[in-house]
C-alpha cells in the first residue's frame, strides 16, 4: 500500500496552471467522476474544475464498458466549456497530456492507440472518456474523463491480465499520483490553450499513434472492417485501406492491432 499523500491540497501544491485545476474537488470514493463532474457543471462550476476520486465503484469506459478503478490509480474528470470547433481536439489533447505527463513524471515512453488508449510497452495504462452536453449549436459543457493505471497489478484481474499494466510495475518503482496529476493538468492546459489553432495538437497526436501503418480490425457499432490504418483525418477519424483497395473512414469505434 502506498504511503503517498493524495489529496486536493497535495495536488494543488505547486500546480502553476491558470485554468485547469483552479478548483480541485477530491473525493476518497465516488461512483464515477463523470457523474459528479456533470452535476458540478450543471450547477455552474467554472471551466477547468477537476473532480478526482481515490477510487470509483462504477467507473465507466468508452463503448459502455466498465472501467476498473481501484485505490492506487488515477481517476479524474475535467470540466470544460469550449467552443464547438474545439470538440474534435479534446480526445487528442487528453491523450497527449497523458503521454507527456507519463514521460515527464514516470520516465516511460507512452504512445496512443487510436483513438485515445494510452499504452506503455504495448499494454494499456490509460483511457479517455469524453461526454459533451450541447445546447443548440453551442457547448454547454464537456467532461473529459482520464483514467491512469498506476498501482494496478493487471495480473490480479482476470479480464485485463496481459492487455493492461500499471505504471508502478512498468517503471519498477512507485510513481507519485499527485505529481502525475499535476504533470497531466499542466500539459492539458498547454495543449488546450493552443486551441483554436489545433494543427499542432493534431500533428503531435498523429505522430504518437502506434496504429498507423498497421493491419487492424476496426469495430464501429455493428460494423467490423479489416484493413491497413493508412491515415487520420484532421477531425481524428481513422482512414482504413481495405484489402479490395477502397478507403473507409472510421469516425468512432475501436481498433485491434493484428499480428502480421
Ligand atoms: C476507456 O478507455 O474506455 C476510457 C476509460 C476512462 C476512465 C475514466 S476514469 C475517470 C473517469 N470516470 C469514469 O467513470 N471514467 C473516466
Strand order of the largest sheet: 1-2-3-7-6-5-4
What is the helix fraction of residues, given as a range?
A: 25-40%
Structure annotation, total helices: 6
Radius of gyration: 18 Å
Largest sheet: 7 strands, mixed
Large-scale geometry = globular
Distance between the termini: 41 Å
Average pLDDT works out at 93
Question: Quick one: how many beta strands?
Answer: 12
| Strand fraction | 25-35%
Alpha-beta classification: alpha+beta
Order of helices and strands: HEHEEHEEEEHHHEEEEE
Query: What hetero molecules are bound to the protein chains?
Result: biotin
Structure, described:
The radius of gyration is 18 Å and the shape is globular. It has six helices and twelve strands. The longest helix is centred in the middle third of the chain and has 20 residues, at 87-106. Helices cover 25% and strands 31% of the residues. With 260 residues, the protein is of the alpha+beta class. The chain has a seven-stranded mixed β-sheet, sandwiched between helices. The protein has a five-stranded antiparallel β-sheet with strand order 11-10-9-8-12, with no helix packed on it. It has helices at 8-12, 33-42, 87-106, 167-171, 177-193, 199-207, and strands at residues 24-30, 50-56, 74-80, 110-113, 117-120, 123-135, 138-148, 215-220, 223-232, 238-241, 247-250, 254-257. The mean pLDDT is 93. Residues 32-34, 56, 59-62, 65, 67, 69, 75-77, 117, 127-129, 145-147 line the site of biotin (BTN). Biotin is lined by residues 32-34, 56, 59-62, 65, 67, 69, 75-77, 117, 127-129, 145-147.
